[in-house]
Amino acid sequence: MPGSKSRKSAVAASALDIGILLNAPGVEGVDPGDASGTLPIDAPTNGLVVKVPRWPAFPGVPGVEHTVNIYIVGSAVSVARRAYSIVDDAAEFFIPVAALALPNRPSFEIIYIVRTPNPTTSPPRRLTFKVAEPPTVLKEPVFPDASLYGYIICRKNKPSDPESLFIWEGIRIFIPFDTRFQENDVVTLVWQGWATLNIAPPALTVPASFTVTVTAADIRDRNSLRIVIQPFVTWIKPMTANHSASATYTLLRRGVAIFKSRTGLVRLDRKIPGESGFCENSSWMK
Q1: What angle do CA 254, 255, 260 make, to 5 degrees?
Q2: Among candidate residues 84, 100, 129, the one where a domain is terminated
Q3: What share of the chain is helix, strand, coil (3-state, %, to 5)?
Q4: Domain of 31, in residue numbers
């Protein structure tokens, strides 16, 4: 058929062009021989710098410009972009990616696409956030319904506070605002009950996790984050008198633990005044 040979040649050439891949990207601070691509410990906070090797068709004359876009595999939106011309010629190009642009998961892949203007794609490079014990630098949780001596009892210690709770309704915990918080950070608080007044063994409950996410309004207004320990039967009722509970929280950014708090302590005494029983609802008040 006339013209079929030329059309087949064009299709073959097009397929060949698509199959040509660039060198894989590198990342500053990542060992090229590390298949998992373990990132520097500060990557969740400071972002990363992608290293793009010079591509064969780099602009060789003035007036020609190529663009490089960095992508997280699975997303169609680039997380960084740079343009290069003959005056930028180098063996390697360094493109920063902001921490906020990194995905909220422990491991991910990046690629880069060079437009010359025809696009050419690199192989992916896997990257993994480094898991390390976060520093204990955040303030301990606050128990707004506790007394001056750190006790929560059957009666409300602060009845004038319209948001205060009876012990059987839950235990409020405030996470003090910290300037290191960022929008979409996740705070995970761990609560546990103890059979002593100083959060020493034996334990009366298993550890329980409660989670809250930092919002833009929290950052703007410097809000404390708020968590309520519930349900009563599971997490509070095991503590009766001369018992205590501990609360610590960890700040996670893109799934990685960044900072940890000091431990908060609250003492619990559910003994009904003048009686031998313990309060677990409002019936004792009637």
Answers
A1: 105
A2: 129
A3: 15, 35, 50
A4: 26-129
